Amino acid sequence: MAWLFFLTAALFLVVVPGLALLSWFFREEELDPLERFCLATGLGLALQPITFYALFLLHLRGLETATFLLPTLALLSLILRFFLFPSQNSTTSKHWRASFTRERLPLFLVALTTVALVASRFLAMREMTVPAWGDSVHHTYIVQLFLDNHGLFSSWAPLAPLSTFSYHFGFHSFAASFARLTGVSAPQAVLISGQILGVFAVLSLYPLALRLTHNTWAALATIITAGFLSRIPGYFLNWGVYPKLMGFALLPTVIYLIDSYWKGERKGGPLFLTFLLLLSLPLSQMRASFISVAAVAAWSLWGLWERRRGTVEGIRRLFLLGCTGVIALVAALPWIHIMNSGNTVVRILKKSGARRGISLVQSDLSLWSRIDFYYAPLLVAAALLCLLLALGLKRRFAFPFSLWIALSFLITNPGLIGLSRFTGWIFNEVLIFCLYVPLSLLIGWGAGELLRLSASHRLGRIAATASLAAVLLWGFPKQAGIADPFFQLVTKEDLRTFRWIRKKTPQGARFLVNGFLAYNDKTVAGSDAGWWLPYFTGREGTVLPCLYMNESLANGLKRPYYVRLVKDVQSTGGEPSALRTVLTNYRISHLFLGQKRAAVGYGSNELIHEEWLRGNPDFKLLFSSGKAQAWSFSPK
Fold it and tell me: What is this structure's pTM?
């Protein structure tokens, strides 16, 4: 089965390198098998962008190294350790057997839940051939350019007239390696690796929950909550916001390592692995890195409080952690400089400067009034109740946890404490997306306590198993059917038309496609499959990937050019002579109308109306499939 092949490829790319790292920094008996496996997903994901980035700084291509060399060396490292330290193997075997004997039922249920999680994610995309919505357009472009350039790049040619690349690329490095290893196309790689990343994002919560609660039942309940009860992160399939998912998948591993460091179990290992994650986060998702830094700060403050009687040791640990963070920042500076060479940093600064009024702060805060779209009210209420109970019972994890939530909210909304000039570095939308992490952990702890109590006798174990099975049976069809056709720009009719365009139209053809003005009329977004036309046909379109606002344009083009084009076409109202003049001025030779005709995207409208073209001698219908059409434009 294809999905087994894809899973094996992902395990080779991500889990094998992660396990190799753990084998050198954590003794086998320190971690349970599932804990080690899930922790390896976060570490392995972090290594993907770091590999591409390091080789880019050395002026080398990173694709083959990240795809083949890194996992192969990691596998050899694991084999080498197995033969070099045979005495550890028997110890490990005994530890793992004892762990399985002690926690047989919950571990079996974790394995069953993982299988159900994987199945639900693959079933969710069963009707999709192309990833959904607008963000997936530039994600696919980037993955394709990674493949074409065998690593990081600057020019987006031939897909778009952009001359810089300054976007975070953690997800794209993983997707490109996945495409190179499996041979799937870039759109398929984005779709499939995005769903596998969704599995990793849920599983990465398991070791953190186990560490914070010391309860396998709680860890099990945590991944069930995130994977089957919460709409987020499963709903990301519809929005294509996979870089955010990448950042959130790394976050639990960061907290795990910081908690380990402050508990004093180890120093060097957690610090080095934390360095890797702190370096990977800004390469993977800049705004998620702020939430991770808030977590580091929260656990550090709590660690200092716990070590208040040994002030010198606490300060020394804080100093070492601070040095680790500074080194990670210095290591990331070359990419931050590249971000500045585009328009990414400038846009962030402008946004933060422009969002200084209290009314604008309140506008961003109003997103919380719609939280019920992302999370069921009952889920939020249960999480709040569990947090209050944990604080009342003085559970250790509850205090840094509460501090982390508070710090994350404040750095997202600094205007509430008089620091409005810093508003805009991170949005409430990102914080709401990330909320599934604390919600799942809190509900997991509360449910885990109940399950542990009930599992102390036979009838209780039966009841616990039945209740968890009921939750899975309730949540599985919801997750498997979470894909919403509204967000899918490309249909089979569009793909059929694209194939005709690629075969039958000249290479220099320039297509006018449906688009609409977005973000206060400062940019143009696509409203049907025409947004994908350059990728599938190799022909030029008039709607660029939305990242064009972050990058430098090539060939002397200016960003307002594309906004003016849409406004000028709209202003004609379809009047033949005015439309002829506008299309001639913009060097349009062809037009494409997608199957969905502006039915995708909030606030979108149809730029090109079919009735404008029919009966007009300037236009000729060349091909149609359903409502997807290709027209030629030849002024008479």
Answer: 0.93
